[in-house]
Design brief:
heterotrimer; A alpha+beta (345); B mainly alpha (299); C mainly alpha (268); B: 299 residues; mainly alpha; MetI-like fold; 13 helices; C: 268 residues; 77% helix; binds adenosine-5'-diphosphate; binds magnesium ion; Putative spermidine/putrescine transport system permease protein (chain C); MetI-like_sf (chain C)
Chain lengths: 345, 299, 268
């Protein structure tokens, strides 16, 4: 397992896409995530690291050795795509053993390693099956075994589970997390799924339009997003424009009380996390509040997603479902907020 | 630099071979057809000869007639068979359809000369069909129509249809394989019969490969030798027979003539094909206003 | 009403067409096994193997002719493969100036019976001492067969899944390993199709072989020609069947050979 360092990496795709990464370091044994909207260059970055795409300039280092010009077959970096890319004319064991065979490993070793790898991904006994006889999840497990059996210096995964159905996706996340902890594999994992990011990553980078906007632990980024784009992408979708005067942030039609740490700044935006807001029906509470009208309610697995109109603006609020507590559209409600949980940008 | 010239280098060996043999052959033919006069001089004597020769034009029209008729019949027959195979695939069994397709490919195992021979033993005045009709009291010993070595060229046409129809099926069948059953079911929901579905959705997809196949068959048939040699008559001769006999007549002075006939035929085939292409392009457009997708959308 | 008629008509029509393909074959078999075919018998007289004996008889020269036919067809096919592989890759994967023109030139010879073109370079063949030799005939046979090989392989190359090649590189396969284990298996159906067409066309060739071979290179089509052109019908039938048998066996062994190759190059 090894560390990966990227310096001044640049790749241009005509007519208009450019990937530019000034510096990125992934530590040995780290579960590193990359998250960003579709088309922002995540796949391109992984292809550059594996050598499938050549950069226009810049350097890629693996474990203190520069590999920018090394061909992909000599890098021993595993890459798992969204689709499993199994060789259709080979059986499961031939697929898994392919890399070892190419390296001309001893036959007996190959056999043992294949069985071990298949056991790791929970496919013991599937040796003689052809890919056409496997389910989507099983295929992706074979792809995983095929990469792991080579003991790669790093394992890159490009939205590997996004084609699977939700239950299977959770199961696969569990599996990869377990394998990563057992084997201390360096992993770079791409997703555009926030939930996946928060469950899996030790550290992550948020990308947009070919650039890295911020790196850090998922929680750190969530609590201190560097700009609106990052915040928005992480699901902080109450972004109010305005200005600070005294203890208050003034936005269109209302003002919000600031906590002690937040005063005297020149912030232009105030951000409210949707789950940090609480709707109350009138009972008293000491916290500061806003008043508004419920516009829209949707229910999703244990949570209400509620839109409340406050003056001319809409706030998105996530509330845990509680028996006996109901929301009705059109109702006048109070929205409680924590001055300390406010983000100013 | 390397990536720029790589495709050219890869294609070069095959291209050089073809250019040498094919373009070399045609240019060689042109040059030799122009060498009927004094050595080293260009002479149009051979062309003047054949253009003014009744034999040539008789041969040409005879050849054009059987080539056009056989390609028309083979195309229609091929299309009908492919429709049948489509029906079997969709409604009965796709394996059976594939098996029938293979069986219908049988004549491709025989060379042209065997195809000619088969038509001869089947259709000659004392051939198998004549005997069958005689046994069934449907024809007398000498009342069987002349179908081989006949002045119209029926024997030649039938032999070509027999030999080229499998080729047309071979070119069209893959299209059928690509049409998912769901299409037909969607059509049925909308109340469209198989025939209607075939006409509206499948037929437009078949037109491009059918045009290619019939073009190949027509051009090839025009100058092919064996079938008209075995099943034709002495006058008018098929172009191929006419040219080849001049070529090997023993008198070297006839060779420019033979080559002029070949070159002229090639030019005429090219012109006729262009003409047909232009006409059917318009005709194709009225059937299929849009791209391939449209064939389905009209359902 | 119409559709019920249709349901009845289609099987009848297809059966008729299949019969029209099978009857000639049966007739050839009967004919080859009979000694005489007197009017108005539907089938030839007493069963006799004399035609087959004649055909097989060394004096008739059909076995050497068969060998010559196969030698020419297989060599031409091999050369076609070597020439067409890179050309097809180029046509399928690169966008270069003149690609369409190159493709047209490569496919054009399929349109014209090769003898008509060969007459134009007959003199060059004579000059290079290629007439009356097997190499000359093989060279001439490239003309009608190469286009089909190029076409089949181009389709094959165009449908290759390159993501699998990438995957092979990622797993440490070098260029030749990747070609051998991943690319080639995907090309095999195209190789089989191209080879089958190439072999069939070469075996069937008559006039080109006669012109370039000058009657010295005797293939089966040359040997059988006098018999199918008004000669003894029984011997003609036997020759026709011998030809079909040769073609069938060659195609079948080609198919098995390719399949065997395919399965032997599995990893274990
Ligand atoms: N081989 C290529 N040639 C040209 N443009 C490409 C190529 N690969 C990717 N791109 C472009 O680069 C951008 C980023 O693509 P990608 O890395 O696949 O994004 P992501 O994986 O984040 O969705 C897209 O605009 C895409 O169109
Ligand atoms: Mg991507």
């Amino acid at each position: 397992m090894a560390s990966i360092t990227i310096k001044n990496l640049y790749k241009y795709f005509p007519p208009s896409f450019a990937l530019q990464i000034d510096e990125l370091m992934i530590k040995e044994g780290e579960f590193f995530g990359i998250i960003g909207p579709s088309g922002c260059g995540k796949t391109t970055l992984l292809r550059l690291i594996t050598g499938l795409t050549a950069p226009d300039r810049g350097e890629i280092w693996l474990n203190g050795r520069e590999i920018t010009k090394t061909p992909p077959e000599k890098r021993n970096i595993g890459l798992i795509f969204q689709e499993p890319r199994l060789f259709p004319h080979f059986t499961v064991e031939e697929n898994v053993g392919f890399g070892l065979k190419m390296k001309k490993s001893r036959r007996r070793d190959i056999k043992a390693k294949i069985d071990e790898a298949l056991e790791m991904v929970g496919l013991t006994g599937f040796n003689r099956r052809y890919p056409s006889a496997l389910s989507g999840g099983q295929k992706q497990r074979v792809a995983l075994a095929r990469a792991l059996v080579l003991e790669p210096k790093a394992l890159l995964m490009d939205e590997p589970f996004s084609a699977l159905d939700p239950e299977l996706r959770v199961e696969m996340r569990f599996l990869i997390k377990k394998l990563q902890q057992e084997k201390k594999i360096t992993i770079i994992f791409i997703t555009h799924d926030r939930e996946e990011a928060f469950t899996l990553f030790e550290r992550m980078a948020v990308m947009q339009e070919g650039k890295i906007l911020q790196t850090g632990t998922p929680l750190h980024i969530y609590n201190q997003p560097q700009n609106i784009k990052v915040a928005n992408f992480l699901g902080i979708n109450n972004i109010l424009p305005g200005y600070i005067e005294g203890n208050y942030f003034y936005t269109q039609g209302f003002r919000i009380l600031l906590g002690a740490a937040n005063q005297n700044q020149t912030a232009k935006y105030l951000l409210l996390k949707p789950e940090s807001l609480k709707i109350v029906n009138g009972e008293e509470d000491a916290r500061p509040f806003l008043t508004g009208t419920i516009e829209e309610i949707t229910f999703q697995t244990g949570f209400y997603h509620i839109k409340v109109k406050v003056q001319s603006q809409s706030l998105n609020i996530i509330q845990k479902y509680q028996p006996g507590k109901n929301f009705t559209p059109g109702a006048e409600v109070k929205i409680l907020y924590h001055p300390e949980e406010i983000i100013l940008l | 630099m390397w990536p720029k010239i790589k495709p050219y280098i890869l294609i070069l060996p095959a291209l050089l071979t073809t250019i040498t043999l094919f373009l070399g052959g045609i240019f060689g033919g042109i040059i030799r057809s122009l060498s009927a006069g004094k050595p080293g001089e260009i002479s149009f004597y051979a062309y003047a000869q054949i253009f003014s020769s009744q034999d040539f034009w008789a041969s040409f029209l005879f050849t054009l007639r059987y080539a056009a008729l056989s390609v028309l019949i083979a195309s229609f027959l091929g299309l009908a068979i492919v429709f049948g195979l489509f029906y079997v695939r969709m409604e009965i069994n796709s394996r059976l359809s594939l098996f029938l397709q293979r069986l219908l490919q049988l004549p491709m195992l025989f060379p042209f000369l065997v195809a000619a021979y088969i038509i001869f033993i089947l259709l000659s005045p004392h051939g198998w069909l004549a005997r069958l009709l005689f046994k069934l009291n449907l024809a007398g010993e000498n009342s069987f129509p002349l179908l081989v070595n006949d002045p119209f060229g029926w024997g030649i046409i039938i032999a070509y249809v027999f030999k080229t129809c499998p080729f047309i099926i071979l070119m069209l069948y893959p299209v059928i394989l690509k049409i998912p059953k769901a299409w037909l079911e969607a059509g049925k929901v909308l109340g469209i019969s198989q025939a209607g579905f075939f006409r509206k959705a499948v037929f437009p997809l078949l037109i491009p490969p059918l045009k290619t196949a019939s073009f190949i068959v027509f051009a090839y048939t025009f100058l092919a030798f064996e079938i008209p040699y075995i099943l034709g008559i002495t006058y008018p001769k098929a172009i191929a027979v006419y040219a080849y006999q001049l070529y090997t007549s023993g008198s070297l002075s006839d060779r420019p003539l033979a080559l002029a006939i070949i070159i002229t035929s090639l030019l005429l085939i090219a012109m006729i094909s262009c003409l047909v292409h232009i006409i059917t392009r318009r005709w194709g457009k009225t059937i299929k206003p849009g791209g391939k997708e449209n064939g389905f959308q009209t359902v | 009403m119409v559709s019920r008629l249709f349901k009845l008509l289609i099987p009848v029509f297809l059966t008729g067409m299949v019969l029209l393909n099978i009857i000639p074959l049966l007739l050839l078999i009967f004919l080859s096994l009979g000694s005489s075919w007197m009017w108005p018998h539907l089938f030839p007289g007493p069963i006799s193997l004399s035609s087959w004996k004649y055909v097989i008889n060394p004096a008739a020269g059909s076995l050497p002719a068969l060998k010559t036919s196969l030698q020419i067809a297989l060599t031409a096919t091999l050369i076609n493969l070597i020439l067409a592989m890179p050309a097809a890759k180029s046509l399928a994967h690169y966008h270069f100036k003149g690609r369409k023109a190159c493709e047209l030139i490569l496919l054009l010879p399929a349109l014209i019976p090769p003898w008509a073109v060969i007459t134009g370079i007959h003199k060059t063949f004579i000059y290079l001492n290629l007439t009356d030799t097997m190499s000359g005939v093989i060279l001439a046979h490239l003309l009608p067969t190469l286009p089909y090989m190029v076409r089949a392989l181009t389709i094959s190359f165009a449908s290759i899944d390159y993501s699998l090649e990438e995957q092979a590189y990622l797993l440490g396969g070098n260029k030749s390993q990747t070609f051998f284990y991943i690319t080639l298996p995907q090309l095999l159906p195209g190789i089989a199709a191209g080879s089958i067409l190439s072999v069939l066309i070469s075996l069937s060739e008559y006039l080109t072989t006669l012109i370039i071979g000058g009657g010295q290179v005797l293939t089966l089509t040359l040997v059988m020609f006098p018999f199918v052109n008004g000669g003894n019908p029984s011997i003609g039938a036997a020759y026709s069947l011998l030809f079909a048998l040769m073609a069938l066996i060659t195609l079948f062994s080609l198919d098995t050979f390719i399949n065997r190759y395919y399965s032997e190059n599995k990893l274990y």
